[in-house]
Amino acid sequence: MDNDKFIQLCKEKVADYTNTTMNLSSVNPPVYISASDVYVVWLNRTLQNNKALLSTTIEDGKYYEVTYNGDKNEMYFDVYVHVYNEAVELGD
After folding, report:
1. pTM for the model
2. Is 86 part of any domain?
3. Is residue 20 part of a domain?
4. Which of 6, 37, 70, 85 is at 20 to 30 A from 48, Cα to Cα?
5. What are phi and psi of 18, to 5 degrees?
6. Which residue did the predictor score with more confidence, 84 or 65?
7. What is the SS3 string spanning the chain?
8. pLDDT tens track for 23-77
9. Neighbouring C-alpha atoms within 13 Å toward the C-beta of 71
10. Domain, as residue range, for 30
11. φ, ψ of residue 21 in degrees (nearest 5)
């Protein structure tokens, strides 16, 4: 699968997931996004496999990891929530 097709599939999956889960959680007013509201943070291709980290324009702290396994023609979709962040000074 080429990068453009992979990225488009990723964006569509994230938008579908977001629209479904946000509206099931009784958000008022309902939230609807399209693939154009999803952006790629990081992308890698190794041999026939692809991996992307994505986020959306919604400020919900979620990010998405999508992996394409070219050997099995399968896509794996993971959702993560930002839990903690700390700046650590390293000194000299």
Report:
1. 0.85
2. no
3. yes
4. 37
5. -60, -45
6. 65
7. CCHHHHHHHHHHHHHHHHHHHHHHCCCCCCCCCCHHHEEEEEEEEECCEEEEEEEECCCCCEEEEEEEECCCCEEEEEEEECCCCCCCCCCC
8. 666 667 777 899 999 999 999 998 889 999 999 999 888 999 999 999 999 999 9
9. 2
10. 3-81
11. -75, -35
